[in-house]
Amino acid sequence: MRKTINKRAVTILSLLLALSFITLLSSCGGRPSRATQVNALPHIFPDYAGTTIPAGIAPLDFNVVGDDVDGVFVEVKGSKGGQLEAHGDYADFDVDDWHKLTEENKGGQLSFTVFAKEGGEWKQYRDFQVNVSTDPLGEWGLTYRLIPPGYEVYGKMGIYQRDLSNFDESAILENTAVPGACLNCHTSNQTSPEQFTFHIRGANGGTLISQKGNVEILKAKNDSIKGSMVYPYWHPSGQWVAYSTNQTHQSFHAVRSERIEVFDQASDVLIYHPSTHQLVLNPDVMTKDHYENYPVFSPDGRTLYFVSSDAWDIPANYKRIKYNICRVGFDPQTGRTVGKVDTIFNARAMGKSANHPRPSYNGRFLLFTMSDYGCFPIWHKEADQWLLDLQTMKARPLTEINSRNTDSWHNWSRNSHWIVFTSRRINGYYTQLYLAHVDNNGRMGKPFLLPQRNPGQYYDRLLNSYNTPDFTLEPVKLDARKAANGIIDKKRVETKIKLF
Question: Cα–Cα distances in Å, from 124 out to 37, 128, 178, 365, 402?
């Protein structure tokens, strides 16, 4: 009798365990069979609803926001076929399956069905869609700085690169290899890292230029220029680099709404010839009564764009510093400017300041940042993105991508159909990277936050700001150890003035 009872108890226990296991599997891995319908979009982070993405981008992982959310199930269906699922604490999609689905649905849409387990009960929210563009990204990834949002003292920072097809990030160079150094604004030649340059501030200051693996470090200053060689931009031929030479300072505000102001007490534009180490000084962009800054070349190499402000006594008149966008002809044979300087966008007449001009590589548009004053809009909450049509010469604010907080530094993909820019729209303190699609008429899609695995946790724990992003056609191949040793070494390549 006792053995029969024990057998029955074991059988019942086994059945209960089996049922529990089946219930666990159905609640964690399968589409919930019973869910309350909610006539609202799910509250997700990041907000990817209605965005336009390139095929092959890293999966758009997201979290369902809510204190009592303890599980999610997401089903994604393509308008042209295919589907995938994700379940767990957040929507974590398989990279290969995601790539297959986006490739299959170029020119179509992905529809997301989101279930969230809240307070022990499943809820099904209204579907949302993501557009998959027929325009390829055409880039391997991004380069950017990661830097703590400090002012005078900082610890670890560096220049990094990220594979945009997945979540892999690697350091190009970190200042832990060069103690005390600030690795500054970097750029490659039309997103090709075969030509790459950046500036180093600090005791081991200099300007690094890498060309097809050959690295040189230039002396930080020349007696004939006002400061270091910063804010570089390559001529499309690779034979020239435009730099700004600046005397940069910063000060702190006494008001709560404004924390810091960075300004130049002098700035000029110069042209560098890497093969001869010569600096070409052009009087048209090195005037005493103006501050010239942020030089860039047109895609055909025949025009030099830059910004210019009337020179005022600084810091007493820092709010009077307002930059216009200018252009002047350029001779690729000599490095000289040609003709007269022309103001193509008068921000000063609007009581504003325009900075960071970036021409699209197809030559159609000029992207820039507008703020109330100065040349460092990253510290200005009112900073927005603007677009100048170089065919019609009409400019407009990019309301489709701007936010209520700082939107600043930006760059184009080589095919001119995607941009990357920095924004503080999440919390007002840290800059994050956003990407947006650009159509043939310059209209931009809803921007999307740089995808991360478990983004809620990633961005909540990130204590660095993204800075000076750019696309890169392929991974940057810089020998970090050799570069660091070269920076620490006091040997520098001297620059010389080219005389005509």
Answer: 5, 12, 52, 43, 31
> Taking a C-beta distance cutoff of 8 angstroms, is the pair 116, 64 a contact?
yes
The answer on 293 and 426 residing in a single domain is: yes
Q: Determine contact, residues 145/158, Cβ cutoff 8 Å.
A: yes
HSE at residue 274, side-chain half, CA atoms within 13 A, is: 24
Number of domains present in the structure of the chain: 2
**What is the helix (H) or strand (E) element at residue 14, kind and residue range?**
helix 2-28
Q: What pLDDT digit, counting tens, does each position of 101-151 carry?
A: 999 999 999 999 999 999 999 999 999 999 999 999 999 999 999 998 754
* Domain membership flag for residue 468: yes
Q: Are 286 and 270 in contact (CB under 8 A)?
A: yes
**Residue-level pLDDT at 378:** 80
Q: Based on the fold, state whether residues 233 and 163 are members of the same structural domain.
A: yes
Chain-centre distance for alpha carbon 177: 24
Total Cβ atoms within 10 A of residue 281:
21
494 burial (CB, 10 Å; 0-12 / 13-18 / 19+) is exposed
Nearest to 197, CA basis, from 213, 185, 179: 185
